[in-house]
Amino acid sequence: xxxxxxxxxxxxxxxxxxxxxxxxxxxxxxxxxxxxxxxxxxxxxxxxxxxxxxxxxxxxxxxxxxxxxxxxxxxxxxxxxxxxxxxxxxxxxxxxxxxxxxxxxxxxxxxxxxxxxxxxxxxxxxxxxxxxxxxxxxxxxxxxxxxxxxxxxxxxxxxxxxxxxxxxxxxxxxxxxxxxxxxxxxxxxxxxxxxxxxxxxxxxxxxxxxxxxxxxxxxxxxxxx
Length: 225
Description:
By secondary structure, the protein is an alpha/beta fold. The protein has two domains: 7-123, 3-Layer(aba) Sandwich (Rossmann fold); 128-223, Winged helix-like DNA-binding domain superfamily/Winged helix DNA-binding domain (Arc Repressor Mutant, subunit A). The protein has eight helices and eleven strands. The chain has a five-stranded parallel β-sheet with strand order 2-1-3-4-5. Strands 6-7-8-9 form a four-stranded antiparallel β-sheet, covered by helices on one side. α1 crosses α5 (109-123) and α2 (41-48) packs parallel to α3. It starts with 6 loop residues before the first strand and ends with a strand. The mean pLDDT is 83.
């Protein structure tokens, strides 16, 4: 029996661009549908459950940020936000919304398809993993430590989840940045140190003896099982 195709929703009001994107996704083995009116997106998502959404920031009748916030009240569908303005990406990042990825126009349609494939591949992994007193749930982007929910930013969650899945392996700051900041923005390696520091504090607030995220001098960080 044929495996059901993943369904990609392209929300874009430039007809040529949306047609090209849908065509590329279909050639890559996906089912694709485009919408060009922001006012109809939320209801469509509720009734059709796409596997991933390419969501333009600037749309007729309703903006991408409002749409995204509404979708997050009932769905964890991965979203790639698109914008024509580089400065808008900075604003989105500042909001720490938890959007899976950001792309800036003009972009390579091939690259968008590759990014979408990578996100869907990660989402196809087991939703929940646990080790000792730590439970990680990718779908809800939540972590429970000693039966207490951790209040993590998206960046902190991605670091914890990535290190947790690769227990015992050492990752440099650059490798962690490549995994966490999928939009390839320029940040200093000290940003990773800051996230790790905050993450450790949240873990030790629950268990003062916790030392699961280890520093390896001159190399990087690892999760100690």
